[in-house]
Amino acid sequence: MNQLHILGRRLWIFSVWSLVTFFIVNLLAMIATVITSSTATRWLRSWLPDAYTFKWYLSAWSEFQLDDVLVTTFQVVFAVVALSGLFGVPAAYAMARRDFPGKNIAMLLFLLPMLVPPVTFGIPLATVLYQTGLGGTMAGVILANLVPTVPFVILVMIPFIEQIDPKIESAARVFGASTFQLFWRILLPLLLPGMLAALLLVLVRTIAMFELTFLTSGPTSQTLVVALYYAVFAAGVRAVQSIDAMAVIYMAITVIWLIIALRFVNPAQIVTRAKQQPSAH
Amino acid sequence: MNQLHILGRRLWIFSVWSLVTFFIVNLLAMIATVITSSTATRWLRSWLPDAYTFKWYLSAWSEFQLDDVLVTTFQVVFAVVALSGLFGVPAAYAMARRDFPGKNIAMLLFLLPMLVPPVTFGIPLATVLYQTGLGGTMAGVILANLVPTVPFVILVMIPFIEQIDPKIESAARVFGASTFQLFWRILLPLLLPGMLAALLLVLVRTIAMFELTFLTSGPTSQTLVVALYYAVFAAGVRAVQSIDAMAVIYMAITVIWLIIALRFVNPAQIVTRAKQQPSAH
Amino acid sequence: MSKDHSAFRSLRLEQVGRVFGAHNALKNLNLEIQRGEFVALLGPSGCGKSTALNCIAGLLTTSSGSIWLDDRRIDVLDAEERGFGMVFQNYALFPHMSVRQNIGFGLKMRDVPKAEIAKRVDQALATVRLESQADKLPGQLSGGQQQRVAIARAIVIEPPLVLMDEPLSNLDAKLRLEMRQEIRRIHAGLGSVTIYVTHDQDEALSLADRIVVLRDGEIRQVGTPEDLYMRPAKLDVADFMGFRNRINGRVAQQSGDQVVLDIGGVHVQGQARETITGPIAVASLRPDDLVAVAASEAGAFSALVEAIEYRGRDFFGSARLPDQTEVFFRSHHRLNAGEPVHLMADKSKLLIFNQEA
Amino acid sequence: MSKDHSAFRSLRLEQVGRVFGAHNALKNLNLEIQRGEFVALLGPSGCGKSTALNCIAGLLTTSSGSIWLDDRRIDVLDAEERGFGMVFQNYALFPHMSVRQNIGFGLKMRDVPKAEIAKRVDQALATVRLESQADKLPGQLSGGQQQRVAIARAIVIEPPLVLMDEPLSNLDAKLRLEMRQEIRRIHAGLGSVTIYVTHDQDEALSLADRIVVLRDGEIRQVGTPEDLYMRPAKLDVADFMGFRNRINGRVAQQSGDQVVLDIGGVHVQGQARETITGPIAVASLRPDDLVAVAASEAGAFSALVEAIEYRGRDFFGSARLPDQTEVFFRSHHRLNAGEPVHLMADKSKLLIFNQEA
User: How many structural domains comprise chain A?
Assistant: First the structure.
């Protein structure tokens, strides 16, 4: 065989893979750095600090009034998750099962709030919310967050629903299931993994959604991520380690939820779509 | 038939649809509001302003030094797009065509930077970049932006590559194509729509990527979105209309690119995966 | 919800029609099926056979006409109120339920007591010989086993009507033969009506008591398997049943249903299946019944061999008559392309039809 | 890159093996194919036939052995250097190129001048009768047309070897028959070697000059279609060729290759296809050659009918011998399940094998 060809091919594959690996290793190293920094007493002479402490966590907690912020964060996040599920799943069912004129346009409109940067519609949204008196309230923050999350739930659920053979629903009907029984005994159990995955991803997105919350929140509706940004922005008056501590808290919360979400769904499925047929042959 | 059943079903479908429609109408109305505001002379008594003007655009342009900011934005964005394509597409090809132990773990690692909020790794990344002297430079901003975009390109390209029947590559080989000819005459033409779509979406994401750029940029590497945030944050000293004008510029840029991207790809494909087989029967 | 329909006498479709947009999928279907009958709806894809089945099941609403079980009108009921059993092409088992739960689903929906469900599911499992698989999920079974579960799920509710929508088309050839016998056996045991939709004539011939041939949403012929195989009533039905040869000829003589056609000078006799109206008629014949013979036998066609294939027992080939009509024939020995051949039609198998409009 | 191989005499596979991990997909394959031959590799899925084809094409490397075109060793060449033509199961046309570009691809890769490419592509289009579709994209064509483009793409380069990997399995039954004739015709016109992989015995019987039966990566039999249909050499080959009946019997008498078996008191004679070593041997017979006859004929088996099916021309059924062996038979009239039947074997078609280990 042509030895040069193969050598060239192998070299290229090798270099791409080593770059990708380098990438991932760096990512992990950086996260380690912050965790180290947030628990360090001082840190000047070497890569590793002289001693470790948790005092920065305590100071971060009191400085940022984290108990209030955390309570608000969870209230907002759970309201958003519940409402996106309630509107998103039935809409996804309709989109997956029915063909109607303008279906493609509707799909495109749903994608828009996910692809367009949130600040694009965040500013007008905030303007409108303040004009209707909802600006700065928790309801306003929740409403703003629903704009990208409902379409997200719809888009994530559609492949899960399409995976369910419509003949299975027909079979349930023929064998005597009413609409409620069809939903409760067939659709819900089959969609549960998808719904859990979608809603947990909504949860993570909402925790992380800085722009919309930043633009629409008042002093009583600040979530963790907004508090963190204020801290970074006003860094001059606070210790770097204190900010790092808060970043670690934030990181830990999102990663824990993400791990829970990933237990319920192979994430590749969302992007590359389940290949397997609904029934094995 | 059971008339009550049907009525209940219809009511539910109707209410979900009207909510979704309400949603989209509001979204469009809000965008209209900002455009109106940014071109208004005064705006107190009614929903529509008394007269229109473009002076807010001029003032926004000079106040924010938009020519510098725009040049930086485009330099960053095009570097990110080019580099993500160069690393992402070959890696995606390897992921799609080869089975190796740990493939699922690699997929999961690629998803992580897309799902984890950028601020989670943004802060440690910024810390490291500042320590290596890259913080605040354009190279640093580009590097930081590559962390989520390379995995994004990989994940978007995998379904496009999997759609190409490996037998087509075999056929090209059998009929005498070398590796280079295979790439140039078969793979490139077949992957072009997918690559254009992926890279245009990277472009939009990079224009919109606030967190990473904010955390790693210095005065000479500020992109448009960061400038916009500074403006909102320091809103007291500037006219609301001027900020709105800048938001419109920003919105227009992203939406134009998005429309170009959507011309090349049915966006639903990325989420729901192309159903059609590579060859018609 | 479901009453005991087991004492019904017949199912009647009266002028049933179904329209999809501008397309008439089903046109004024009239059919009466007696209790105990096994009826096959046979036709190519798009002929309306699946539409008819779904209308009977209640999965599609009818556009016109009515469906009756004795004197009870059922086309106004929802699918879940009809109480029929159905077997789907791709099994359509509930993937999250065990085999036992799948089979018991219909009984559970009817609020049958648990102990009774368990007993009847056990019986159904025994009928389809799947006792050992009762607690597996459908995904763990082979295709044939899944299809047996689907059949058990349909028969356990002891329905007045079992509907089968190409139930064997996803199975391989060997399994298909086995399942055919199983389906016949189960039908005989139930004593209810089975309506079986298929595009495969072998399946319809071997399974059904009566075959309904559909085309373009209309009934073309209703008859026993022997009727359809030996005596198709229309040219297109003959075509579908494997009468691949169509040879035009001038009507030379006609007495009763016996017609003699003059085909390029050769006179062949056959049975007319309809009143022959024009001067030109079509002789319709299976390739099996047109055999290559030694030269110069009386009544044999002369033709030129175009292609020939070994099929084990015999050779099959195609040839052209002098008027360029392509014919398909059987031969006991190898022939070569381009060679002349003499072909003899079996007059007892030859049918005569009018030309198509 | 590609030289003119058209003057080659034979293709030789010597001890070719291929291992996938711990699985021996191909074991020491030896085969010599002469110029002009049409050879079918026949076997069930997983028998190694596609592996063999891909090794010849260069799409898989061999694990051992060598492949020779006359005295040129080709298994060390890359696929693109072998210069063979190949037709894939799913066509594998280049979807972004027109029919003309698809067919011309191989010539372009060989740097043939443009005018010459145009001329040869036109010829190939005429050969597969697709002149009018030349500027369409593959996606605009029907399955049969796409397959014809794939064939044209393979033959336009005038390769020494055309490899076909189940080229007809995606087509419907009618088109499959037509394409079979087309492939035979094209092979005859080219005068090169065609190697055809299939799992369909009808296809192999009708197309090939010589059939190679593979199983578990090993050659079981090589022979003409008649050899394989009438005289399978091994019990598993007979099985695969449709000898569905396997009846064990005691060897009662043996003279030359004629063996008489005592099957439950009934003596049947058949031809031994291998040296019978044990006291018990297997009688192997097609269902077609075991016919229901009137009672008490000498040499007939008594059995109980289990199932019976109408197949148009005849009835086919299964029955059990007194020792519970299941047999499959043919009958000219309808029988009923449970009825006793007398079955007569055609001794000229009955083969005797050793029992399987």
Answer: 2
Q: Is B127 within 8 Å of A30 when comparing Cβ atoms?
A: yes
pLDDT at residue D252, as a whole number: 92
Provide the shortest C-alpha distance from residue C183 to chain D (in Å): 11
Same-domain pairing of B20 and B9: yes
Q: What are all long-range contacts of B185-188, with beta carbons under 8 Å and residues at least 24 apart?
A: B186/D94, B187/B93
Whether residues A82 and A40 fall in one domain: no
B120 with B250, same domain: the answer is yes
E strands present in chain D: 10-20, 23-34, 38-42, 64-69, 72-73, 85-87, 161-165, 193-198, 210-215, 218-223, 245-255, 258-263, 266-272, 280-285, 290-293, 300-310, 315-320, 326-331, 340-345, 351-354
In-domain check, residue B83: yes
Is D86 part of the contact surface with chain B (CB cutoff 8 Å)?
A: yes
Please report whether residue A279 resides in a domain: no
**Could you tell me the residue range of the domain that residue A239 belongs to?**
55-271
Of D79, D146, D157, Cβ closest to residue B173: D79
Q: For residue range D58-99, what is the model confidence (pLDDT) as tens digits?
A: 999 999 999 999 989 999 999 999 999 999 988 999 998 999
* CATH code, B152: 1.10.3720.10
Given the structure tokens 């030349």, which residue do they identify?
Answer: D134
Q: Which of D105, D138, D139 sits opposite B175 (nearest CB)?
A: D105
Tell me which of B10, B36, B53 is where a domain ends: B53
Q: What does DSSP assign to residue C275? A: -
Asked if the C-beta of C202 comes within 8 angstroms of chain D's C-beta atoms, the answer is yes
DSSP state of D200: -
Interface test with A, best of C59, C151, C171 (most A CBs within 10 A): C59
Q: Are residues B35 and B88 in the same domain?
A: no
Predicted ipTM beyond 0.90: no
Q: Can you give the pLDDT at residue A240? A: 60
Nearest to C139 among A174, A177, A280 (CB): A280
* Partner D contacted by C46 (CB < 8 A): no
In this structure, are A147 and A10 located in the same domain?
A: no
B75 domain-assigned: yes
Whether residues A37 and A106 fall in one domain: no
Locate the chain A residue with the closest alpha carbon to C156: A175
Give the Cβ contact number of residue B14 at 10 Å. Answer: 10
How far, in Å, CA of C293 to CA of C289, rounded? 12
pLDDT the model gives residue A120: 63
Same domain as A84, residue A5:
no
Chain C residues with CB under 8 Å of A181 CB are 109
B66 and B46 in a common domain: no
- Residues A33-42: contacts with CB under 8 Å, at least 24 apart: A33/B124, A33/B127, A33/B128, A34/A244, A34/A247, A34/A248, A34/A251, A34/B123, A34/B124, A34/B127, A35/A248, A37/A240, A37/A241, A37/A244, A37/B127, A38/A241, A38/A244, A38/A245, A38/A247, A38/A248, A39/A245, A40/A241
> What integer is the mean pLDDT of A18-37?
66
pLDDT confidence bin for B52, thresholds 50/70/90: low
- What pLDDT does A274 receive? 32
Examine residue A143 and state whether it is found in any structural domain, yes or no. yes
Domain final residue pick, B30, B53, B76: B53
pLDDT of residue C112: 93
pLDDT score for B241? 65
Cβ pair B110, B101 in contact under 8 A: no
Say if the Cβ atoms of B174 and D153 lie within 8 Å: no
What does the pLDDT look like over C93-122, one tens digit per residue? 999 899 999 999 999 999 999 999 999 999
Nearest CA distance, A184 vs chain C (angstrom): 12
In the structure, what pLDDT confidence band is assigned to residue B271 with cuts at 50, 70 and 90? very low
Instruction: Judge whether D288 is closer than 8 Å to chain C, CB to CB.
Output: yes
- Closest partner residue to B278 (CB to CB) among D78, D80, D95 is D95
